[in-house]
Amino acid sequence: MYVRGVGPRVAEILSARGIETAEDLLYHLPFRYEDRQNPRSLDELKAGETASVIAEVRGLALLRTRRGPIFELTIGQGRRAMKCIWFHATYLEGKFHAGQTVAVYGRVEPSRSSSNFKMIQPQFEVLPDASDDAETRLLEVGRITPVYESLGGSRLASRWQRKVIFNLLESMRGAVPECLPRALLDRLALPDRETALCEVHFPPEGTPFSELQSWSTPAHRRLIFEELFYLELGLEIKRRRLKERTGIAFGANEKVREAIREVLPFHPTAAQKRTLLEIVADMRAPTPMRRLLQGDVGSGKTIVAFQAMLVAMENGYQAALMAPTEILATQHFLAARKLLERSSRKPRIVLLTGSLDEDRKRSNRALINRGEAQLVIGTHALIEEKVEFDRLGLVVVDEQHRFGVLQRFKLMKKPGQAEPDVLVMTATPIPRTLALSLYGDLDLSVLDEMPPGRTPIVTRRIPDERSSEVWDFVRKQVALGRQAYIVYPVIEGTKDDQPELDFSHDPEDGIAAPAPRIRQKAKGAELLFPTAAQEANPTARSGLKSAVEMHEKLRAGPFAGLRVGLLHGRLDADEKEVIMRRFQRGEIQVLVSTTVIEVGVDVPNASVMVVEHAERFGLAQLHQLRGRVGRGAAKSYCILMTGPRISPLGEERVEAMIRTQNGFELAELDLSMRGPGEFFGTRQAGLPDLRVANLLRDRQTLELAKQEAARFAGEGGSEATEAERARVRAQLKETWQRRYGLVEAG
Ligand code: ADP
Ligand code: MG
Q: What residue owns the CA closest to ligand 1's atom 24?
């Protein structure tokens, strides 16, 4: 479709931002609004609040300081004045001249002269004057004005978007196709699509400003609902389709039960019994199982999964377990061997990871293909190596592999065979309602009870300079027969190991992106957070202690005489296996490591977890790391060592860790601190990228959308006309294919 203001070059820029169609542009919503009907006066400002102010330019100056140039703008209303300051902003010099009207938006800071205020690095826009075109004036003066994140430099900033979107809406007047059934909208008292799109971009006079800022106007609610409805409808339909497919109906008779009993090393908790029953009930059913097993760190998911795999094996099928890292795969492999030693059947267990040598891979693949391996444990390699199973019955998979993997299990079975059952395990304590809504195509089992005999973990924060006390403490624990982990944020102190910072703020653009975004550079499971110093100054590369260097130092110094090991992601599979095995057997007393041990590592005798640069780790990571101890009967300790410069968020994370051990509580906090995208690691977890809705803010709407989607897919769909239903189906297909890339996720 032709959009006024969008030529081929601009279209290219937009396309790079994921905006391909007119519709995409219309769903690029303002991230805030400015009330230019009733502007705030400088008199009524209070220090500490975030405000938008319209005032006249009185003066400007470029100050050369030792720390670089500072651009200072003085704006005023009547007798009142306010200073605005930007650092390193020589490019601003030509932008302003006295007498202009500007809108600035930022935090109001007290200024040295007590009567005045200042703003540091505010967002700004020069308001149009008589020399500007009428349209610009119409859209920006004396009304509630939308502010957009730039789609490309100053050229495609707010002003451009206002015009293009305004014209687009004008040209589509009366012709924006509705995509939700009328009866549904009426029932929920939501506006139609066209009205919603018009009002969300250009709010009518009198729209309560607080509703706009909190995205709760009827227009916002409609668009949020729409997006979540389609997400949920897609999940619902997948779930319904699955129930129509043929799976394997496993038997679970006394013989199978006995096979499980003979290997169980302990009495399962009530929660473990209950979840296993739920899983086995699915396995017995003739439709394929798709179930999510959720349980906090240490709740005992592994044994539940092994029991389910035994059911499959007892039925003469192969079972596969896919772990997120090689270390974890190796650990599961060792644990399975130990567990199944007691089994009278003595199943053959095979490990398949990417870094095995080619010969072993080849022979393992052959064992799997001929059905001689009953239990296969591996990483993503299970899929990548195109292993064809002889008779695959059950796949247990870690949530990190979720989407993008489920549909590929089809590759693992021989054509014509029934679909294997799939059990997804997650240690992310997603709040239950969110889990239900997001994994709407999976059934949910929750392990909500810890195995008995756990003592709470003592968590302490110790500043860097007192490290010698920490090392003394570790030595004492080791002398008592315990083991310890010492975790570092990077492998080696090389440049590559540094977190990558990405400031999407374009210096040419008056309206900056909402906040500098920190792009986490994924290195296996090793993700980083910026330090305070880096948050303030992205170019500062502060010295980070690394696992490799500290392993040397600790071994030669504080831990001389102890058996100290080193584990990180760059070792190959065999080396990892040897280290893990030696640590498990107690031959290594102190394991210096990176976050590769974050997920799942299970050595009950380890009772001390020391995390250096703790302020740099995410809350979920810290929680997972702490979950590595407190697994046995011994009293356990988590020592969070912190450096001298800590960002407020880093501070908050460390404090939260000390305050609580409840995974769900920490997850809620993490979610609110980071926002859902980063919390779930959107891409990694395969969650859809939402453009309007926000999973944290819109949880209630998510619930509503789920109910309505189920109703629509079922009986309630009859409230829609045939034409409406066809429209919904078409939109659903479009949405899922294009936006979520989840065409047919198993
Ligand atoms: P996670 O849910 O984090 O994967 P694991 O499966 O690794 O937890 O179990 C944590 C620890 O608790 C392991 O050492 C495991 O052997 C032990 N465990 C699990 N279930 C029980 C139980 N019912 N009784 C005693 N110990 C258990
Ligand atoms: Mg586990």
A: 451
